[in-house]
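Figure 2 data, in text form.
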Amino acid sequence: MKNVGEAPQEELATGERSTRNRVARSILDHGPSTVAELAGRLGLTQAAVRRHLDALVADDVVEAREQRVYGARTRGRPAKVFALTACGRDAFDQSYDKLAADALRWIAEQQGGEQAIAAFARARIAAQSGAYRQAVESVPADKRAEALAKALTEDGYAATARSAPHPQQGEQLCQHHCPVAHVAEQFPQLCEAETEFFAELLGTHVQRLATIAHGDGVCTTFIPKTSHAPDTARATENTAHASASTAGRNPA
């Protein structure tokens, strides 16, 4: 039974995450810090700071180090400081998206416009295709969408597969996160190449109904139920037509 004044579990979890982010952000802004320094900057008790640091260490966001001492060393052990790991730094805003967009824009200007971007997008997918093929080809045909969703999730796309809403006959592959969404907003060829790859991999035409890059909440791909797999050339042709427009809203 919930005690009077107790916040719902979801709110507690949200508050914990917010405070934990403040601890990590303080380390980012001020450099390696002691528990006492963090407590003073954030207005928290040292016990609370230690609790959040333990969680951040477990998540490989921060790591404990021995504090560097400049000049004469005082008696006693140096205070322990906490610094961001490479993984922790990557969790904060980076300029990678801008760098990628600038590089693609240069390719378009110097190497042949939109066709060059499309060629790059297909080459990028091809370089990553090995794990997806292994996952999909190792299961029966009726489990392939689910296997693809699992493989995409392992790459950070938070994907799921489920039956499409009636009266559609087939499945919906939903990607709830897209690591390249900001770049794909400017270069839809990335989405189009991915859709073509899904069709080739699953052996059937697919239809992209919505994309995060287009402003939808989820990237949604419809995979129709078929009694037999069409040849790859036809699947690619049908998908190219379907992926020409990603303006549809997510029906889920």
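Caption note: Residues 1-12, 228-252 have pLDDT under 50 and may be disordered.
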